[in-house]
Amino acid sequence: PLSPYTTLFRSYPEIAGVALSSHIPSDPPILELFLPEGFTGDQTQLMHQMSIDSEFIPVIGMKIATGRNFSSKISTDPGHAALINETAARRLGWEDPVGKTIVSYRSPGPVTKTIIGVVRDFHIESLHKEIGPFFIENNPSFFRRYILIKIKSGNLPATMELLKKKWTEIVPQLPFDFSFLDETFDRQYKEIGSASCRGGGGG
Predict the structure, then answer these.
(1) pLDDT (tens digit per residue) in 88-136
(2) Count of CB atoms situated within 10 Å of the CB of 198
(3) Closest to 88 measured CA to CA, from 136, 25, 28
(4) Contact between residue 47 and residue 135 where contact means Cβ atoms under 8 Å apart
């Protein structure tokens, strides 16, 4: 599990924030079936699903439209709480989603979770793709894929060297594999533009 290391990384003055998640912007989330409150068993809804810790929203810069974010001080959040985005609220016809429940069928499921908040719509893939409905949970079992580190402006090379050194000390069995989100997004747009140019010939 990666969670013990976030405290270490947060201790350095060069680091503005650290978060854990199952997915990050540019990484397509999985699609799962859910049964929202008020829907019958044959009306399951397909939604994007991801799992985040309580720091993900402030580190990424997402906004809470209504309700609250997950809290590390509320022990029931990992097992019982969930967030949805504005698109999900609209598609489900929920004017006031906070307090409603959704059954998740993800393994080992099914599990019923209560909506504690709605996040403003956000792009996790390219801006060229339509935003879909999102179900967001706080399940530490899925925090195994990504550590997001927000670095303060300053000496970036030195900070990256520090992170690499500490990573090698605490997780020597795993390579220090990293990427910058802004560069990832830029690469996505260039690939889309290139594909569009290639597809525009003929006639």
Answers:
(1) 999 999 999 999 999 998 767 789 999 999 999 987 766 677 889 999 9
(2) 8
(3) 136
(4) yes
